[in-house]
Amino acid sequence: MPLLRQTRITLEMIKWEHSIFALPFALTGAMLASRGIPSLHVLLWVVVCMVTARSAAMAFNRLVDAKIDAQNARTAMRAIPAGQLSRRYAAGFVLATSALFVFAASRLNRWTLLLAPVALAIVFFYSYTKRFTRWSHLFLGLALGVAPAAAWIAVRGSLDARILVLTAAVLLWTAGFDLLYACQDVDFDRSAGLHSVPQRHGVAAAFWLARTLHGVMILLLLWLAQLFALGHVALAGVAAVAALLLFEHLLVSPSDLRRLNAAFFTMNGIIAVVFFVFVAADLLWK
Description:
It contains 13 helices and no strands. It is mostly helical. It has a single domain, classed as Orthogonal Bundle (Tetracycline Repressor, domain 2), CATH 1.10.357. Helix 1 crosses helix 3. The radius of gyration is 19 Å and the shape is globular. The N and C termini lie far apart (52 Å).
């Protein structure tokens, strides 16, 4: 059936399985807010919110970047520029997943519903930032970083400044690996007039900045553990994240980006899950 085929192509285009990047941090925020396992009702709708918001954001990104993607050899075979998916269907998918996100937010509490349009504005706005600023990496970081704070609000109906430390950590983590990912498109970005740190300052500078951001991220995770009085299990999780980040940076170098996909997709998914598992174990151990 055409509709099922288009849906399958859309899910492949947005790589919906990569929701795993931000979802574990959202679940971490929810568990910190409840000091244990939140209710099944909250968990269900937080997961729905995360998956639908990311799906809407990714489809929106592919839609507004379709012309740019068509000009870039690396991205020319994406579904929209390759003609596998119509703009109309992609726009409909964005609207449908956005509506489902707002509905899911309404099932949590008043504040999640009121802030749902703000969350969508943040994740949609990122798609335009590379057109005018080299710091688009930080905007992507913010788009993922709001997840733990949003999950906290879902549980508590209010915001605690302590969870913003995790937001900042996720922001820097995301910005760091996006700096590395952007190194693939330095030449194209320069020719197309797009902005990024690698395009402006070079690949070597981008690598050093990514290492710095990831180093600060580890410090923020240690601070988070202190703020929430987490124990040795959570600290072991921070150590594991640090080791995985180090391995990620050893996979690639400014002169060798061949294993970038492994560093970007595989390692970062593992990092997110590992941190959640250790924090969850620490909270449940007590």
